[in-house]
Amino acid sequence: MSGMRTLLGPRHAGHTMPADELGALSLPVGDDGVVIGDDAEGHPQMVGFHRSAPYDVLLIGGLWTAQVIALRAAGTGARVVVETGRAQAWTLLAQAAGAGLECITLHDVGRVPPQGATVGSPVVVVRDAGMRPPRGRVVSGPWQSVLTLLPYLSPVAPRLMRNSTLVGIQRVSPREAEQIGRILGLSSAESEALPTLADGVTLWCAGRERHWVMTSPTDAESGLLGTARRMD
Question: Which residues pair with 205 in a beta bridge?
């Protein structure tokens, strides 16, 4: 993955493990950028959202994880722009971030204005626009990354999975896991594990790379957002 350094795990077949151990398992994602969680030893794992080339991330998962990532992206100095049809779910977060500065701004679906992202003023757009985000309204570009949140597998999910550089999957139904596994080329063990994942655990996929990450809130984040949860 361009711009992201990784520490690869062993390349033996399957990476099998008991499903009840998955909540504690994660693999490295990178070593610079926004902290998205920890590996099994508690080492922080990061994703570099600030890039000179377009960068698209898809998260099929919960609002809680997307909000933690947004808050942490704002903490790295990015302007975070949230396109959402449920502004009430984001208002407290936007008000709390940046100590009164507008580092997280909210916009209705389809109403995000041009952001003028630059190397000195990078932007992360979070698209919380339901199961069918409007196509072509918000796109990634130099210094402007886009994170799209889908609560479940939807008709647009296959296209988004194929077009995204990084895809995160949280707990899904067995049928959804089977479909996702076919699209992403997951092993049978990986697909079968997805319905068993604990809250806060995400399987991040980048090309042929697979990374299990546990996202745990800081005290400040848990005070603002509560504990990790998959359902909203």
Answer: 167, 210
Helix (H, G, I), strand (E, B) or coil at 21: helix
Compute the distance between CA of residue 140 and CA of residue 180 in angstroms, rounded to an integer.
23
Give the residue carrying structure tokens 């795990």.
9
d(CA 134, CA 125): 14
How open is the CA angle 146-177-212, to the nearest 5 degrees? 60
Location of structure tokens 């377009």: 54
| Cα torsion angle, 182, 183, 189, 191, sign | negative
Give yes or no for a contact between 70 and 59, defined as CB atoms under 8 angstroms apart. no
DSSP run (H or E) holding 74: helix 63-75
**pLDDT tens digits, 55-111:** 999 999 999 999 999 999 998 889 999 999 999 999 999 988 865 567 899 999 999
Q: What are residue 69's phi and psi, to 5 degrees?
A: -60, -40
Q: What is the pTM of this model?
A: 0.85
Cα–Cα separations (whole angstroms), residue 229 to 52, 88, 189, 221: 33, 18, 23, 13
How far, CA to CA in Å, does 23 sit from each of 83, 112, 121? 30, 36, 36
Q: Distance (Å, rounded) from C-alpha 90 to C-alpha 129? A: 12
Write out pLDDT tens, residues 73-84: 998 889 999 999
